[in-house]
Write a structure and sequence with these properties.
Blueprint (H helix, E strand, L loop, with lengths): L11 H17 L5 H22 L4 H27 L5 H27 L2
Length: 120
Amino acid sequence: MDSTVNRFEDLTVWQNSRELSKQVYLASMSWKDYELKDQIRRAVVSISSNIAEGYDRSSKADFARFLNIAKGSGAEVRSQLYLALDLKYLSQDDFEVIYQKVDYVVRQLSKLISRIRANI
């Protein structure tokens, strides 16, 4: 990891996942489907939460494991975005913006996992 990272809040991927959470919360604010709304919100919050929890674990292997969990939550969010689009809870434009952000965060997670595993 970078020497400028002293806490999880310094991680760009955590910062981006925080912004993603805000985007999902705002986009889902008016949804009447409370089950999907709750599920996508829990999944998106899981991304940043697992990054934070993993960072403060005692080993790089633990950190990589929690990053993988965060990555899985990203896949869950992407899947739920499709359902929200299909049900017309999201416009195509809103879907694209949020999907692109999730995809970017997941790619960041993959790169970070690879870097960590290379140094274990």
